[in-house]
Specification:
This protein has 197 residues and is an alpha+beta fold. Helices cover 31% and strands 9% of the residues. The protein has five helices and five strands, in the order H-H-H-E-E-E-H-E-E-H. A five-stranded antiparallel sheet has the order 1-2-3-5-4, sandwiched between helices. Helix 1 runs antiparallel to helix 2 (32-44). The protein is rod-shaped and about 135 Å long.
């Protein structure tokens, strides 16, 4: 090989080295062929071209970064008001037209001088979350519990279930079980209910 062809070979090797350094995914590290080309250039006595530094700017003018890009800031979250989930209200059947209400029955007992102290409206117990009896109204007192049903058939069925411990008149049932009404007093409550219009 003549000395005249050495500069041409050196330029060719530099071009190969630059091409290998600029292409592919491994652009940041020289591969074996570019390293051997550079060593051949150095052995020929030609000046070695400078290797691009990993931190040097690329052709686009942006320096490559080894750190991953920062994640975008989280989107601002609006304050959401938490609502308590409540079950839908229990809808009880209506008492029949003309039937007295449970409160009306209790008031009639008091007006007649009978004990009906501490009345508590427990109509919610008529629904499926309570006793599930299907009554329309329920008021418990210390002396007697008054149930009003949506029809006489339902009232008669319950009165039969509580046979001996209840009294039925129309859609109204008096229950003596919970209050433990003395047997001697029961006819007085039943008479007031029977006469109630």
């Amino acid at each position: 090989m003549t000395h005249r062809s050495l500069p041409a070979v050196g330029v060719l090797l530099v071009a190969v080295a630059l091409t290998a350094g600029c292409g592919g995914d491994d652009a940041d590290r020289p591969d074996a062929s570019s390293a051997s080309s550079l060593s051949a250039t150095a052995a020929s006595g030609l000046p070695t071209p400078p290797m691009p530094s990993p931190a040097a700017p690329s052709a686009g003018g942006v320096a490559p970064s080894s750190a991953p890009p920062a994640p975008p800031p989280p989107a601002p979250q609006g304050s959401t008001e938490r609502r308590q989930v409540s079950p839908p209200p229990v809808v009880l059947p209506q008492r029949p037209a003309g039937a007295p209400g449970a409160r009306q029955v209790v008031d009639a007992f008091v007006a007649a001088g009978l004990k009906a102290t501490h009345p508590k409206d427990r109509s919610i117990d008529c629904g499926p979350d309570g006793l599930g009896l299907g009554c329309s109204e329920l008021i418990a007192t210390d002396a007697v519990t008054v149930y009003v049903f949506p029809d006489e058939t339902s009232a008669a069925d319950i009165a039969q279930t509580w046979s001996g411990q209840s009294y039925q008149h129309g859609a109204v049932v008096l229950n003596y079980l919970e209050a433990r009404t003395p047997a001697a007093d029961r006819p007085r409550y039943e008479k007031v209910l029977a006469n109630l219009r």
